[in-house]
Amino acid sequence: MKEVYLGLGTNLGNREENLLRALSELVKLGPLERSYWYETEPVEMSEGGLFLNGVVRLWTELTPPGLLAATRAIEEQMGRKRSPEEREKKPRVIDIDILFYNQMVVTFPDLVVPHPRLPERAFVLVPMVELAPDFRHPVLGLTVEEMLERVSTAGVRRWNGN
After folding, report:
1. Fewest 10 Å CB contacts: which of 29, 45, 111, 160?
2. How many CA atoms lie within 13 A of 10 on its CB side?
3. Which DSSP string do the residues of 47-97 spell out, in sequence order?
4. Distance between CA atoms of 152 and 155, rounded to whole angstroms?
């Protein structure tokens, strides 16, 4: 089984329900555990409300391309529509990013792991520290906790369900 980390985010509809629905699908790929949810300001997005984000540690037999296909299928099943302008950041019902896949470095046209912007994103690092503070980035050599120490956590608030 491979240990992978996934970032989940949503800012449309019932955000908690969206995340729980994604979890109910992800558990079909293998056993998992999740962080608390965090409410965060949108990053690189001019429209839409606050995000609810979290991180999942998943153990799976899927290959990186297989995992990407599975997570995209979950996104589509939940109503996410990918388009050529997908690079433009828009509100979404669910976003599932592959952050780490074991200690592998993966580079495909549609998949880069570790996630290239992970070291600068507190909304991913804060919940990941809960699950794996000592997990070491295979390229940078820094732990998740060390990466978190280098970014501002302003605007990342643990969500209490209200």
Report:
1. 160
2. 20
3. SS--EEEEEEEEEE---HHHHHHHHHHHHHHTT----GGGGS----S-EEE
4. 9
Give SS3 for 103.
Answer: coil
Q: For the residues 16-40, what does the mean pLDDT come to? A: 97
Instruction: Give φ, ψ of 5 to 5 degrees.
Output: -120, 130
Span 66-114, pLDDT tens digits: 999 999 999 999 988 766 555 556 788 999 999 999 999 999 989 999 9
Query: What is the pLDDT at residue 121?
Result: 95
**Locate tokens 């501002």: which residue?**
152
Q: State the residue range of the domain holding 154.
A: 2-158
- Quote the CA–CA distance of 84 and 61 in Å, as a whole number: 30
- Cα 31 to chain centroid, rounded: 17
**In this predicted model, what pLDDT tens digit does every residue of 36-56 receive, in sequence order?**
999 998 877 666 789 999 999
How many separate domains does the chain show? 1
- Residue 127 — pLDDT band, cuts 50, 70, 90? very high
